[in-house]
Specification:
mainly alpha; 0% strand; elongated
Length: 123
Amino acid sequence: MDKEICGCVQRTSYGLPCACEIAIKILEDKPILLDEIHHHWLRLRIGKESNEDGSSVEDELKGIQERLKKLPFQMKLEVKEVLWQLAFPETTMMSPPPRKVPTKGAKKKVDIARSKGKITSTS
């Protein structure tokens, strides 16, 4: 197929192989490589998600649990805190201070005359 007739609109607009590229691949008996497709289409999933693609983390979680059993207590607490942050990012383990924290700087003095609306001259 001629590239001038094709115009390669699919390639330039969508990042997908156009008709002339597909025709050449068929004639040469070559597959369309994933590198020849825009990365947007590689992330596209159509239909129901399933764990058959190896995305299950059950084995990894079991391995982590076994390793946690062997750790010292302090390390377990640190790991637990990180896991909590991963599982519940909207919450925090921080608590408010027990009393009001003093801010830096001196307290501002209020001029009594100005607060009553009287203007005094300093000369």
